[in-house]
Each structure stands twice: as structure tokens, then as C-alpha cells.
Amino acid sequence: MQKLIGVLDWVEKNVTSRIPVYMLMVMVVIIFSQVFTRFVLNFSIRWAEELGRFLMIWMVFLVGCTALRKGYLVGIRFAFDRIPEKVQPYVEVLTAGLMIVFLLVMTLYGAKLVQFSLARGQLSPALRIPIGWIYLAIPLSGVIMVLFTACDLLLRVAAIRCKDLREDIEAS
User: Fold this and answer.
1) 41: domain range?
2) pLDDT at residue 1 is higher than 60
3) What whole-number percentage of the chain has pLDDT above 90?
């Protein structure tokens, strides 16, 4: 389990945290260049807006993985806090299980979307790159999110089992 956590820590640090920073830097330079050339030099970089949009899509999906792992995604805490404390760990396990189901569906249909768009040879208008490469952000981030959530689920189940075991030992 420690090895899996180490791999997921590496993925979070190097893939879902560092790469979006580089993408943001490239996007800022490209969009700044586009604005400068359009308003100062009176010509437009035809592909700049499209590349900025594609970089934003990839950044959102990759950063979403980090946000999920660190617990920064929006949640409904006020409802959760009203549940009795003894039941809360079980609700967290149920929630993680439901999230895995949703993420698996997202990943499956994202992969189908990538496959469909690549099979059709659909290209972006300005950059002329396959749209499937842009859609690849959906299944890739879905797989990463499933791994993050599954690891969290295993840790929560282990914590519940250890607590139940301690309670059994104390009762006897």
C-alpha cells in the first residue's frame, strides 16, 4: 500500500500539479502575444486562441485530479456534519464508492469519445491537430481520479476496520 501511495504522490507532484503550471505559463505567453499582435501590430495569430483553449481544458482536468486528492473540491459539509459521528466514516466510504462509479463512467465514455473522434479523423480548425488528443484529457484524468479515490477508499476502509477491531478488543 505504501508503494501505491508513493506512486500516487509522484503522479500528483509531477503530472497533476507541475504540468498545469507549465501549461499556464505557455498559455499566458501565447494569449499575451495574441493580444499584442492584434492591437499593436494589427495582425492576428490565427492559432493562438485555439491553443489557449486546449491548454485550459487540459489544465482544468489535471488540476481537478489534484483538487480531488487534496479534498479541495466543493462538498456538502453542512449535510455531512449533521450525521452522527459514528456513521460519518461509513458515509465517507459510500461517497467514495459512488465517486468511483461516476469516475469510471466518465472515463469509459471519455475513452469512447476519443476513439470516435480519432476514427473520424476530426481535426481542430486552426492547429489541424486531431481533436481526440484534446478529448484525451477526460479519460486520462478519469483514470488518475479513480486511482486517487480508490486509494482513499482503501485507507478509509482500513481505518474503519482498525477502529472496529480496537473496539472489539476493548470490549473483551
Assistant:
1) 2-171
2) yes
3) 73
